[in-house]
User: Fold this.
Amino acid sequence: MRIQKFSHFVVATLLLVAAFAVNASAQNTATATGKVTLKQADGTEVPVQGALVEFHRTDIKQYLKTKTDKKGEYIYAGIALEGKFTISVSAPGATPSFIANVPVSRNPVNNFSLSPGDGKVLTLAEIKAMPGAAPVAGTATAPAPGLTPEEAKKKQAEFDKELAAVTAKNAKIEERNAKLPVIFKAGNDAVNASNSLKGAEKISKLDEAINSYNQGIEIDPEAAVVYGNRQVALRSRGLEKYNMAVVNKDKAARDAGLEAARNDLKAAVENGEKAVAVSKTEGQANNAGGAAAGGQKDTGLILLEDRAETYRRALQIKAPVDNAAAAKAIEEYINSETEPAKKEKMQTSLGDALFYAGQIDESVAKFREILAKNPGNLDAIYGLGLALASLTPPQLAEARDMLQQYASKAPEGVSRKQEALDMVKYLDDTIQGEAANKAQETKTDKGRPSKRKP
Assistant:
């Protein structure tokens, strides 16, 4: 299942998504980032986790702080565009360092290479006293250059309000970064565990996965990968429900099971569409996702493939989905995919989608195109038979021959095999009936008196 390929890199993208979402929404702010390393005795440098990074605004009183992650990287979204800051860094076992008078909007990336030391944290007074340090505002009422005390007070109030909003946003980022990986892993583990199960046990494990993904969506409603994996879990659960329903001899239970299965596939399609839409908005398709995947395949293409596969499965079990949207989604994936076998598989599904969307001529053309390259493609043979029978006027003889060819080659136990045989009988009867009617009309015409004048 796709979840197995997805889960090994998806957590890495979550942090990027969260940071991007805040940055994109704060049009009057910038995002400060950088890396903190510690020099070693052999001359190498290692990342410092948990280093304290402090931002002191130099024109008014404003103080922000954050810490580095396990890679030694820090990020703070919501820095005022017009402000200049003194950035100080401290860490256990290191000598503190600072950079003065930094316009973050023009210099958003600032890295620090610390030397071994006593782990001291610089105070504001110590920074101000050091050579090369820019003046740092000390009180909320201290007037900035060119401002009256009243103007400075008003400006300070505005920035205090902005700071509160930024702090709230960063608190949400921290919550996402702390909770999402845990929740997402729980969901992925449940899906992977379901692969070895069947029936009610499999459905129960998939319920668990979907509940985890639901929690992830609550924390971050714009995380494409969470929608993508919830799609996979819903699709798997729906197909398991379908398989259980079709063998149920109780008609009421069977009908209820089929309806539940189709509703799951409908929900899976909706999640697939959301995943693709969010991915395009985030701009992940060819950057963050691809890098996180280790170059195997970019996130955007994976989401397109999963959405196309979900539509394919939904069409197979007659789920209530938009057939035109299915054709569009499958075609988008085909145009993006480079692997011939995968393209051919979805070409057949595109033919099915066009058929269900009522575009019969286009469906026939698509199936003929597939069979010209691969005459043994059973799905295309079956699809062409149905499409030919639906043409106006229908091409009954060729439709019957295609379905007969499918029935003779399809393995035993495939549900379409019996459907094809039933359709062959129906078409045979129709063809014979039409032939009999035509013969009767010809006989009647011959027995009628000629209307020619003597």
In short: Residues 4-27, 134-145, 284-296 have pLDDT under 50 and may be disordered.
